[in-house]
Amino acid sequence: MPLAPIKPSQRTEGIRYAVRDIVVLAQEAAKTGMPMLYLNIGDPNVFDFTVPTTVVEAAHRAFLANKCSYSPSSGIGEAIEAIRGEAARKGIKNVLDVFVTTGASEAIELCLTALLNPGDNVLTPAPGYPLYTAVEAKLGAATNPYYLDEANGWRPDVDDIERKINARTRGIVLINPNNPTGALYSEASLRKIIELAKAHNLVIFADEIYDKLLMEGKRHVSIAGLDPEVSCITFNGLSKSYLGPGLRIGWGIVSGQREILKDFVEAVNKMLRARLCANHPLQYAIKPCLQGDQGHLPEVIAKLTRRRNITFEMLNAIDGISCVSPEGAFYAFPKLEGVKDDAHWVAGLVKSTGVVVVHGSGFGQRPGTAHFRVVFLPPEDTLRQAYEKIAAYHRQYRNP
Q1: Could you write out the three-class secondary structure of the chain?
Q2: Position 187 pLDDT exceeds 70
Q3: What is the average pLDDT value for the chain, to the nearest integer?
Q4: What's the pLDDT tens digit per position in 262-305?
Q5: Burial, 4: exposed, middle or buried (Cβ in 10 Å; 0-12, 13-18, 19+)?
Q6: 95 and 39 both lie in a single domain
Q7: Which domain holds residue 156?
Q8: Among 50, 158, 252, 279, which is least packed, fewest CB within 10 Å?
């Protein structure tokens, strides 16, 4: 008797991750021999960025010292203290717990898992990083997107956040600077969100992984630093500002009122203990990164600023495409006019030009709009080639 196909769990049915899913289509296009221009994944090391030498040296010393055993579940002492010091510099008080994880993504998943029951929801930005909705789908949580306001530089629509809060809402996700738009949020917006969180006893998930990648001298404000009583988990790591996404080192900082958060903190720590620990030797890079020379950042920001400017100028010069200028990170989220299905537009772009971007609907967006995300990490010549191809393709798409 033939064996029946193995059925996957129902919890996987709603999982989508547009940033990686588009790679399948790109691989098919590459098989034709077409030159490919990848503007889809925010990985600095694929291009002309390298991890600071302080990271390499710290990891090397740890390996030579045989720091390859299990570490404490929450992380090694010197890393925890360095992260606490970073929190203090950001003005974050009432720090209840700090834990080191396998990238910020693990910290996010652990905290969502510790908070949400099936049917609960957290407010997630649209557009926003698709990890949050993928984890929600796995947990059986409901999706509850709030919209960012494109006309206001992609800042949160606070009125929309307030309208979306319901009896099953447990938290609010903020990605600041934002992926995929590159927006940097104002202190005024953050304070309004704090008011809502405190009024409804919600946990703020503050994803600040791009906090040091700011252009034109902009200043990042950490939302947890604005109010010591608001319940907040601040996520960060070595992936972006320290150019080490493959290091898989991130962390979470829990702050707020102990009597309100103590059970949640213990739930997070149960999960931390169950998965043992993050990469032990790489944790020794945290202290030199946070406390050491930040000399790599000016060059990185100068490169990103030049590439942001090319992106903004060339995309806005295309008839039927408009783009808000990013203030941080290394993403832009241009709007497509006259396009009903941005996934169809992106699929055609990849197949006909070899330029790989991600469809805006993969990040969430207001109904009736169409966008795509570009990563402006590649060198200037690559970006110019890509945007020229996008211009030619969009002309043909609108006037076949």
Answers
A1: CCCCCCCCCHHHCCCCCHHHHHHHHHHHHHCCCCCCEECCCCCHHHCCCCCCHHHHHHHHHHHHCCCCCCCCCCCCHHHHHHHHHHHHHCCCCCEEEEEEECHHHHHHHHHHHHHCCCCCEEEEEECCCCHHHHHHHHHCCEEEEEEEEHHHCCEECHHHHHHHCCCCEEEEEEECCCCCCCCCCCHHHHHHHHHHHHHCCCEEEEECCCCCCECCCCCCCCHHHHCCCCCEEEEEECCCCCCCHHHCCEEEEEECCHHHHHHHHHHHHHHHHHCCCCCCHHHHHHHHHHHCCCCHHHHHHHHHHHHHHHHHHHHHCCCCEECCCCCECCEECCEECCCCCHHHHHHHHHHHHCEECEEHHHCCCCCCCCEEEEECCCCHHHHHHHHHHHHHHHHHHHCC
A2: yes
A3: 94
A4: 999 999 999 999 999 999 999 999 999 999 999 999 999 999 99
A5: exposed
A6: no
A7: 53-291
A8: 50
Regarding whether 106 and 25 lie in a shared domain, the answer is no
Residues in the chain: 400
CATH code, domain with 141: 3.40.640.10
pTM: 0.94
Place of tokens 């919600």: 202
* Closest C-alpha to 152, from 3, 327, 315, 20: 327
Lowest-pLDDT range, 133-137, 198-202, 251-255? 133-137
Select from 291, 324, 354 the last residue of a domain.
291
